[in-house]
Amino acid sequence: MGETENHHHHPPPPQVAAPPAAPPSLALSRGPTWTPAEQLHQLQYCIHSNPSWRQFLFPFCWLCDKNSTCFTAQALLLAFQHYIVNLGTTVLIASNIVPLMGGTHGDKARVIQVLLFMSGINTLLQTLIGSRLPTVMGASIAYTLPLFSIINDYNDEDFASPHDRFVHSMRTIQGSMIVSSFLNIILGYGRAWGELTRFFSPIVVVPVVCLLGLGLFARGFPLLGNCVEIGLPMLILLMICQQYLKRIHSRAHLILERFALLLCIGIVWAFAAILTVSGAYNNVKPATKQSCRTDRSFLMSSAPWIKIPYPFQWGTPIFRASHVFGMLGAALVSSAESTGTFFAAARLSGATAPPAHVLSRSIGLQGIGMLFEGLFGSLVGTTASVENVGLLGLTHIGSRRVVQISTAFMIFFSIFGKFGAFFASIPLPIFAAIYCILLGIVAASGITFIQFANSNSMRNIYVLGVSLFLGLSIPQYFVTSRTFDGHGPVRTNAVWFNDILNTIFSSHATVAIIVGTLLDNTLEANHVEDRGIPWWKPFQHSKGDVRTEEFYSYPLRINEYLPSRFL
């Protein structure tokens, strides 16, 4: 007691002065701190919040309780949004590649139909027996470099017509994809891909997921800038409707948060049609007409009313070793990008991080999907769509069933071509405005993984900084050094070798995986907790976390009939 009184009346000597307050105390005095959250809790429907199939069969049955609000009737519109978002990249790839191959507008329409058909099939397979995440499998731009090699080879040969050159190119693409698909099948079902992901940590996942969004910046404002008078109003209107106007009324909040995307597309698309018919683009450059006019795709006039894609529709596949090896690089890149997208999808759908065995089987199934794409004559292979994952965060709807329903739209509009061509005629700057927001959401979701590691570690800051910068800088060098005909900076006498390296190092996410994994596993950490390994390790095993079975198990007890190594 005497010591206490003495402490109050006489200040302590300097040598025994109390240490300054610790940073945590200062932080607490300034406001609350947020504990790490493995699952987002602001989602209205998470990965397994599914409506019953009874409601799906009767979507207009409004005899529902107030809380459910007959979710499945809304699920149809939500699923249609996924179809629309996926359609943009599909049309973009076909519009850029098919004319270079000598294809006509009718060929472009058929290519889009096949791409949508395979996208629907592969999405349904992945959500059922693959990753089980609400991810749409869309056309991958990683395959464009091998396609340029095929196009260049056939430009030097004589054909009876440009259409014959197009068909010959498609047959070569078929053969290359069929052979290359076995790489993903072996890596996936051989579990090699899952073993690779065991070297990941939150420090690696952050730059990979961030660059999935940031690396696609060319699909954002640069594409929007091709027609500012359409793209910019779409961008501004979507932000105002989805984020500000929803506060007007509780019912407006529900409608605009979920369906503002469709509403804004309808308004701006109608505005673009008015500009087109009023003659606003009659005396502009051809490039402006192509970007702004609603009648420049020529899909409505060239698409067939009904056309069911079937195997070998372009003819017998052509197998060339040089083109097959080039396609192998694209298969690796699509697998790497899908892996990062799966982590983002898990985050934005309320699921835990996908374990190694789930990533293995999803990549193996992606290889089987690529085999089907080669058989059916698809222009490119598929990968997990980054834009559609961003849509999960935009609408706060992470339901797996919504994505499964969207496959019905993809398959329906791929068969009934005229109906699909109507929506495919949406000007690309409108899609670019949408991607400005969706890709940003995916990039931001990657940043949230840093909460599971020590963000104050200088070692982690180094790994993150170098991985992010090189993940942006190296692909940018490879892209800017590419010639008009698709030749990258690696130019040896072996064209197949050039294609592999140019394709791999043109992918932001792939470079981030390579750099981040090497640095994170070779630089010594002061504590294993700094890397987030204690949080990460349980998700690397099928029994490591009790929620893994809940989110990633096969439906309908399929696992009882499969070998344990595939589970």
TrEMBL record:
Bilayer-crossing regions: 75-98, 136-154, 166-187, 199-217, 260-281, 402-424, 430-449, 461-480, 500-519
Please provide the record's keywords in A-Z order.
Membrane, Transmembrane, Transmembrane helix
What is its membrane topology? Multi-pass membrane protein
Any one GO molecular-function label of the UniProt entry: transmembrane transporter activity
Superkingdom in the source lineage: Eukaryota
Which stretches does UniProt call biased (Pro residues)? 12-23
Gene Ontology cellular component list = membrane
Q: Where is this region: Disordered?
A: 1-28
**Where is the protein found, in the record's own terms?**
Membrane
Family listed = Belongs to the nucleobase:cation symporter-2 (NCS2) (TC 2.A.40) family.
Spell out the protein name for this chain.
Nucleobase-ascorbate transporter 3
What is the species listed in this Swiss-Prot or TrEMBL entry?
Answer: Gossypium anomalum
